[in-house]
Design goal:
Two copies of one chain form a homodimer. The first copy, chain A, is an alpha/beta fold and 299 residues long. Chain A is built from eight helices and twelve strands.
Chain lengths: 299, 299
């Protein structure tokens, strides 16, 4: 029986899976992303080789941390390029996996893969355009538009957008090494840890941190809504594990839009418009599986 | 011979055209958009009826100020809905034109039409995704993605995105009735007039106004680039008539991105990445012609 391989290649951990969809998962393996890409990719290869002894593995999908070169005509297509992750700059992730496994390899960013996974299965199926934003160690965003992950000059890098930052009310300078107080600089997990002296998960629901966090995330959502006009926004990642954050973000988004766009999705139906991932912490890896099934931009 | 009709229905003026493209324009008529939509649309209808006596007019394309209902299944498809323009809320622009002219009518926003026009002809042909931002009486943006104008929950409303606003350096509160100091509130033509006490066209090239303007526009472009990853950005509208503004905007965009995205389009080739409209002040109406030719979402 034909099966598909998927890798969510995150900056912190790898998630490898053999599946045909969320209802038919044969195996899943999670392990840390070390500073040695050869070693990390070898663990993934070993997993898929072992699985291939019992199923017919036809295509491998990869959702990778970035930046990734997704230009099919580029000499470095399928490379992780100038990443800040030690050991990983200029890693030919597609070439290595293809050489070891001998099957077509499809690649996109981890967040485009997560968006595509949410688009492929469950209640978000075929919602187009669909945006996926992850808020965790970093902030990243992906999109599906016209049935495909969003590509262009390169891939979306939504985590680094600029948002209003009132330094009188919030003097925190931000943690982004490139932009200081961009969205990621102000609202990522590390930004929360540094601003409040403890990690997001240690902050109680009634801590003012969550209001500040919702403020910046809602500003970002307003910009995403006005630029992209998505039909749904999925918010995932470690920080969004905090369920109490969702109603705060929804309310602030409505406040900042100030009734400018009069669609029910931004009023009575907002609970179904700004939502947690249907696929939980498997959006990325199941999205990689969905990319493999769709066979988009494989080689 | 088959010809196409196009209307750029702007909040200030209507531009009507019969053409097959920028190289084959039969006639063009410009007149003010009054507070009486029946009267304004009647002038357009009279123009096209007269033209139809000598050519075979097959489809009419409309690029309209908004908000416009572009949802084909909606009971108010083709309506200008809750606009601030007096007299125009809930105007069935498609229905009226279709009833009078008896040919299919295609509609999109004025800025999606302008984006589609730039995408259809000239050096920007088939650049995908392509963004078009107009900076004038208001600020609006449109996009072409996957060969089609960007639609979603509704249409893009990029002019109202939130950008950093340092009130210590720039205490101007902004002029947007919905959001105060959103991009349109800070950087539209009326914002410039109110901030500096004279209209943009009266401000000399060396006035500090242009540095302030470039600052906000560049912040917006950074967000557009990070969210959308366009392959080209076209900047049109009255304020962008000022040629000296382009190099300022390009330099600030590079400064704010801070080398985060390492593509030549954002370094050595930025003069070909952030560009004025190839079609000049005809992007909108020729885009309406292009919509008519493509026949997207007509009825």
């Amino acid at each position: 029986m034909d099966y598909y391989g998927g890798i969510e290649a995150g900056g912190t951990k790898f998630v490898c899976m053999v599946a045909r969809g969320p209802q038919d998962i044969r195996a899943e393996l999670r392990f840390p992303t070390t500073a040695n890409p050869t070693e990390t990719l070898a663990r993934a290869v070993a997993f898929f080789k072992q699985q291939a002894q019992t199923v017919n593995l036809v295509v491998l999908g990869v959702g990778s941390f970035g930046p990734v070169d997704l230009e099919p005509s580029s000499a470095t297509f399928g490379y992780v390029t100038n990443t800040a992750k030690p050991g990983w700059p200029n890693t030919n992730i597609v070439g290595l996996l293809h050489a070891e496994l001998g099957i077509p390899v499809v690649i996109d960013t981890d967040v485009n893969a997560a968006a595509f996974g949410e688009y492929a299965w469950g209640v978000n199926r075929a919602i187009d355009p669909l945006l996926y934003l992850t808020v965790g160690t970093g902030i990243g965003g992906g999109a599906v538009c016209g049935g495909k992950p969003q590509h262009g000059l390169t891939h979306p890098e939504m985590g680094h957008i600029l948002v209003p930052h009132d330094r009188l009310r919030d003097p925190f300078p931000g943690v982004c090494p490139f932009h200081g107080d961009c969205l990621e600089g102000l609202a990522s997990g590390p930004a929360m840890s540094e601003r409040w002296g403890r990690t997001a998960e240690m902050l109680p629901d009634d801590h003012p941190a969550w209001g500040v966090e919702a403020n910046y995330l809602a500003m970002a959502l307003v910009n995403l809504i006005l630029i992209y006009s998505p039909r749904r926004i999925v918010l995932g990642g470690g920080v969004m594990q905090r369920q109490a954050l969702f109603p705060l973000v929804r309310a602030k988004t409505q406040q900042f839009l100030n009734k400018y766009i009069r669609m029910p999705q931004l009023f009575s139906d907002i609970d179904q418009y700004i939502v947690p991932p249907v696929l939980g912490n498997q959006s990325g890896v199941l999205g990689a599986i969905a990319l493999a099934i769709a066979g988009i931009d494989s080689r």
